[in-house]
């Protein structure tokens, strides 16, 4: 393919830098070069035209950064695997470089750059994509197994030794994509035998082990990475997500506390806020998101998203109040929803806000208003709706009594969560989906049944059998304090320091950070005294 046939997009908020880069590309022989100052402009462009080469700046002024833009476009299928992506940034901060590496660009260019370095990076990227065009074409069509077979065949031929490392990296990513995690781990291990400094291979190995169920080994590797500045924050986020998967929110919080608040990405701040909420500490979630929102006031898209996240926090706060005490909290939620994109007439944002307005109306007892909002034009089209927005829709439809619609959206939510690539986003979305599943009532009856059987064994002093059933109730409904206390008390009475993935001492610490009623707090204190009397067992 000649350079004149390659369609290029430049995303750079600095007008002079954008023009200079475009002129250099034209001098190289490119003829179709689109220039954009932010992600919204690029998004509108790629909806209508393909892009073969994307030159993406990291900082985009008062808009989402380049990584956030690429992630969004990849999730929506608007950026294809066959698109060469080159990131450009003046930042050398580990946090920034780590975010860029996460989206697997073909190259990273640090400003100030020379024309020679840009030309060299573009040439290498285009040659790689041209050589592997049959593989990338299959990936564009979501034929990942066939793409992997084709790539392995090309690797065996080894006709381009200089591209071998990049091809192996792509092979490992494809193995993860098709859920062949052991083989992916083997590929990453082979790479690390030649050099244990190759960071993408270390992250890949950790991911492969984790997805293969080898959690302890992946945790051990992540703890090693917390000792290095370049990898510490990302490793802490990952460790926090593992803890959340085990319902160990206190430990997850401890990991997130090791990340400086000012250096925390928006997705990490959102993750930490939901960790607070899972422990019924909604005020701390609100404080964290308010700080993050204020620090992003100049970045309109992020400010809008954080405004909606805050509105969800106030909705959760309203849930815990009686109907006649909710008005003030709901007014704050409505104000926050209104402040998001106040002058933005984008239809997708309007729909996103309407789902939240409908949830507010439900909470306020105005079901007619909620129904009117839900039946507006476009509210039934969920093709381009993100998972968190869909959980708002579940709340609203459930609130007006349409359980069938709520269950349909919940099923779609679960499918979408499985397709997400960003770890923090996946964890937050999964937490919200579980919460909505609880609200619909699909988990609670089963959990109550296990809890009831556990109580029957507990009364008979058959603590080990009681523990088995309390554990199942806890897994189904971890936010129910009574189930957690029953499990803890049964473990203590059975003198079990550990049951499956629950460590009794750590579980006690976990529950000590939860907000509880006075009676539950008293019960926890009594259990604590019993644990303290037996240090040889519960160490």
UniProtKB/TrEMBL annotation:
Record's keyword annotation contains Lyase: no
Ranges occupied by TPR repeats:
447-480
UniProt KW DNA-binding keyword: no
* A Pfam short name: Response_reg
The residue ranges of the Response regulatory domain are: 7-126
| SMART domains xref list | REC (SM00448)
Q: Which residues carry this modification: 4-aspartylphosphate?
A: 57
Q: Superkingdom of the source? A: Bacteria
This protein's UniProt keywords: Phosphoprotein, TPR repeat
InterPro entries from the entry?
CheY-like_superfamily, Sig_transdc_resp-reg_receiver, ST_Response_Regulator, TPR-like_helical_dom_sf, TPR_rpt
* Alphabetical list of SUPFAM superfamilies matching this protein: CheY-like (SSF52172), TPR-like (SSF48452)
For this entry, the protein name equals: Response regulator receiver protein
